[in-house]
Amino acid sequence: MKSLVVVATLVLVACASSIKEEWQQFKLTHGKTYRSLVEDKNRFSIFQDNVHKIQEHNKKYESGEVSYAMKVTQFADMTQQEFLDLLKTQGKPARPTNGLEFDSTGIEPKTAIDWRKKGAVTAVKDQGQCSSCWAFSAVGSIEGQLFLKNKTLIDLSVQELVDCANLIYGNLGCNGGRMDNAFEYVEDYGIQDEESYPYTAHDGKCKRNGYVVKIKKFVKLKDEKEVTEAVSSKGPVSAAIHASNMSFYSHGIVDTRSGCSSLPKDLNHGVLIVGYGSEDGVDYWIVKNSWGADWGEHGYVRIKRNVNACGIALVNSYPVL
After folding, report:
1. Does the active-site annotation cover 268?
2. Which residues does UniProt assign to the signal peptide (predicted)?
3. What is the pTM of this model?
4. 212 within some domain
5. Which of 84, 126, 279, 309 could disulfide-link to 304, CB 3.0 to 4.6 Å?
6. Could you read off the pLDDT of 224-273 as tens digits, one per residue?
7. Domain shared by 9 and 119, yes or no
8. Arithmetic mean of pLDDT over the chain
């Protein structure tokens, strides 16, 4: 009996040592620093809970109960509520929308497409602690259209949208916004490139000074069929999704078993659809996120297609140059 107790104790010590090492590596990898030892201790406790959650989820993934795996990400020291506070695709239309209806070409969509392979997608960025997903989504869609027009891929300024496409357009900068509102700003003023107006992840004073590109209008899509045709023939498309359960996404295809909602009221994150395909008979969207390249599949998530998983086909649009 004593030997069993000793073995159990050694296992517990080893586990405690392992999680502490993982915690130190997590802080090093993600540049995490805290104001005091008390906060460090509190964050470590949250980290432990999240690691346990990830481990339990991955057991279900291995047994086929869920469709995607989890991993430790930069959000692992945050509570669920703190993570939700970052998800703010919100704001209101500032004026009656001037979005155009989609005009179908009547051409059958391609079986699969990946605009990354065609050079139409810039590198994955990290929005940081600023709820600017809406701006990254809108900028990504404009970047794609600009590439398709002149074959030049340019990083455009997300920060200009955060600073300038603000209250008058119904957006709240680092407190959230909408992609269509951002398109309306670029229709009025155009947008500079990232080099001229770099990202700071904070609200700032508008420093608008000319533009690299201006859009004429934007097109709104009404269902997943139109989204498929648009991604197939027009390029990357902005989308809103329910992302409350995606903080620790690693790889796989997020489907309706993930717990994400398909209701309009629950949409809380702006992303960019850059393609679609199929794996083992499961159709999926290829979705570019703005949580850095270490998150997910090198910064991307695959979401099941043709079932409006996570509400991905509810709010979609793309610009017209």
Report:
1. no
2. 1-18
3. 0.93
4. yes
5. 309
6. 999 999 999 999 999 999 999 999 999 999 998 888 999 999 999 999 99
7. no
8. 93
DSSP-assigned letters across all residues of 147-165:
HHHHS----B-HHHHHHHS
Spacing of C-alpha 306 from chain mean position: 19
The residue from 164, 242, 269, 316 that is catalytic is 269
Catalytic residue selected from 245, 289, 310, 316 = 289
Taking only the tens place, the pLDDT of each residue in 106-115 is: 899 999 999 9
Expressed as residue numbers, the domain containing 33 is 2-65
Please confirm, yes or no, whether 181 is among the known catalytic residues: no
φ, ψ for residue 274 (rounded to 5)? -110, 5
User: Are residues 18 and 157 both part of a single domain?
Assistant: no
- Cβ-proximal residues to 293 (8 Å cutoff; 6+ apart), any chain: 123, 124, 126, 299
- Cα separation, 240 vs 268, in Å, equals 7
Say what the pLDDT of residue 92 is: 57
Query: 283 and 276 in contact (C-beta within 8 Å)?
Result: yes
CATH number of the domain at 259, please: 3.90.70.10
* 57 classed as catalytic: no
Q: What is the mean pLDDT of residues 155-177?
A: 96
